Amino acid sequence: MANLLIFTADDGFAEALTRALRREGHFCKVAEDEDTALQEVRARGLSLILLDDAPALPSVEEIRNWTLLPILLIADPSRIETLRTPLEADDLLVKPVREEELLFRVQNLCEGKESLEKGTPQGGHRTAGLVLDEDHYEIRLNGALIDLTFREFELLKHLMQNPGRVFDRNQLLNLVWGVDYIGGSRTVDVHVRRIRAKIEAEGQTFINTIRGVGYKFNTGTE
């Protein structure tokens, strides 16, 4: 069972997807507009977003500014040739949707997300002695609890969950402070500097600066 967000403005399509997924034991929430979808994402607990590829809805690229959750894009055949490659979504489903294929792809994406978290606390990540326990909102370094503010924790969480991925400052602002935040990118730099002072005191480098772009997280061995 998983908590799923169905993002579509088509009531009939949402009802059909919800009916099929609930029969399989999944919990479904439906969002028909950007504000509702963003509210659901920020509420936490979601495993997957099912996004209807409709011109009136945000693109996968725009949603990536809110969240790093897996995205299953559901597209009309006529829209396939407009999609960029490599595919920005984690998987693609073409309409008309076959229930068996829908359930298979949802299960595959949800299990893939869970497999990334094996060997760490539930809802957590671990690398080179640095452990993120999202359920308890804790960061530990070699067993010692690190005192982080809410924003510092959220910023480090997004970086840790995507080692090696480069985030520009605007992406991090949107992910941690929200799309409505009016402050500048300097805020990200200040918080990264504070985080480094707390987790890199023993000489390890966990966060790398990509000059002119932003930041990425590594295993602490670079």
Structure characteristics:
alpha/beta, 5-stranded parallel β-sheet, single chain, elongated, 4-stranded antiparallel β-sheet
Summarize the structure.
This protein is an alpha/beta fold and 222 residues long.
Along the chain, the helix and strand elements come as EHEHEHEEHEEEEHEHHEE
What's the average pLDDT? 86
Helix fraction bin: 25-40%
Provide the spatial order of strands within the biggest beta sheet: 2-1-3-4-5
Top CATH class of the largest domain: Alpha Beta
- Counted up, domains total 2
CATH topology heading of the largest domain: Rossmann fold
The CATH superfamily label of the largest domain reads: Response regulator
Q: What is the general shape? A: elongated
Structural class: alpha/beta
Gyration radius (Cα, Å) is 19 Å
Low-confidence stretches: 116-122
What is the strand content? 15-25%
Biggest sheet, open or closed, and with what strands and sense? Answer: 5 strands, parallel
CATH architecture grouping of the largest domain: 3-Layer(aba) Sandwich
Number of strands: 12
Number of helices: 7
CA(first)-CA(last) distance = 39 Å
